[in-house]
Structure formats: structure tokens, C-alpha cells
Amino acid sequence: MSKIYSNVMLDLETMGNGPDAAIVAIGAVAFDVASGEIGPAYYNRVTLESAVQGGGVIDASTVAWWMQQGDEARQEICRPGGVTIGDALRSFAIWVAEHAHDTEMWGNGASFDNVILRGAYARQGLQPPWAWWNDRCYRTVKALHRDVPMERLGTHHNALSDATSQAQHLIKMLAPRPPDGWAVMNEDGRIVTWYPQRDHASIIAAQHRPGAVLRAMHLE
Ligand SMILES: [Mg+2]
Fold it and tell me: Are 50 and 69 in contact (CB under 8 A)?
């Protein structure tokens, strides 16, 4: 039986910025704060037509914003394919039930992703796969730990890349400090970033961090 998680990082790509924004992609990863592990991932693109038919709202300023984003992220949400909003919501609920229990759902922030997704479930007459009291706000934690840098993985504004980067950043922010892991420091001895795990992959990542005048140091 596969591991059951209690945290999920959610990232939506939308065509609006209000509470009823039309959803065009849902990305999520399950994760474990204590072990620092990133677990199973969910990703689906949603057809804009179905999102709008389901009551999702397109906002002109968001469309203009999308036009200025990178090619890869833009093409991903514009290319043909994708599932209907109803199918995406149902499959996301099944995925959450399969991999998580009493799920704490993290959004960037809880007033954006969580509210928009919950509203989409309500408009489809479906039950969201997490309880309102388990809404968690990555944006707030980020504001409280401005000294912990985020390392972006994959494509910025791809829902799955964003969810994964955010989950790793959150794990790092919530890790005990100083971390029992590997710190990457600059020449002045200031910690630039760290890897809360002591596994081989973390050590390699620390040693290969781009721009490295940096040295990896074991903090134990
Ligand atoms: Mg995103």
C-alpha cells in the first residue's frame, strides 16, 4: 500500500484573479514536512470552454498578463486538449483520496487557489476533497521567511512545476533551523540555501547549485 500524506500543495493556472476565476490547469503534489519528501503529483489541463460554461470568469488583465509570460507556460495552457472542468475536479478528488488523509491543502495563497477551486467544486455540485478548516496559506509562510530562497524547478507558471517548487520551498521554510542537512554558503559564510535532507541527492544538489562560488557544508 502506498504512503498516505497529510499535506498537498495546490497550484492553479487561471484566466482570472477573482474568486470565480476560470481554471485552465490544476497542479498538485503531496508532501511530507517531517521527512522533506515530495510524493505523488497530479496535473490536468482544463478546457477554457468548459471552465467558462461552468461559471468560471475570464478577466482581461489576467489574459493580458498571460500574453507576457514565457512561451512554454503560455503554450501549455493554449495548446489543444485538456479535460472538462467537471472531469478535472472529479479526478483531482479521487487523486487526493488515494494519496492523502485529513488533507491540509496549501495554496498561494489560501485566498486564491483554495477559494477558486472550492468555488469550482460548488458550482459543479461536487464536494471538495478537503475541509475548509484545513486551508493552509503558503503565501503567508513565505512572507514570514523572506530569508529562505526559493529554487524554481521546471517552467514558471506551469501548475505542476509551481506546486513542486512551492512544496520544496515550504519544506525548507518549515525545517528546523539550523537544519540537520546540507547548507550552501557564500564566501562570507552566509547561508544561501539548504537541503534539509542528508541523502545523496541533496548533497549533489548542494554541490551543483548554479552560480557556485558556494561550498556545501554539513551542519550536523
Ligand atoms: Mg502557477
Answer: no
**Domain 5-174's class?**
alpha beta
- E-strand ranges in the chain read 5-14, 23-32, 37-45, 100-107, 135-137, 182-185, 191-195, 215-218
Closest CA to 9 of 174, 137, 193, 197: 137
C-alpha 113 chain-centroid distance: 10
* 118 CA from centroid of ligand 1 (Å): 17
Give the chain's end-to-end CA distance (angstroms, integer): 34
pLDDT greater at residue 116 or residue 192: 116
Cα 144 to ligand 1 centroid, rounded to whole Å:
21
Q: pLDDT by residue (tens digit) across 148-205?
A: 889 898 999 999 999 999 999 999 888 766 555 677 776 666 677 777 776 777 777 7
Q: How far is the CA of 216 from the centre of ligand 1 (A)?
A: 30
Distance 218 CA to ligand 1 centre (A): 33
Residue ranges of the chain that CATH labels 3.30.420.10 = 5-174
Least confident residue range of 40-44, 94-98, 168-172, 210-214: 210-214
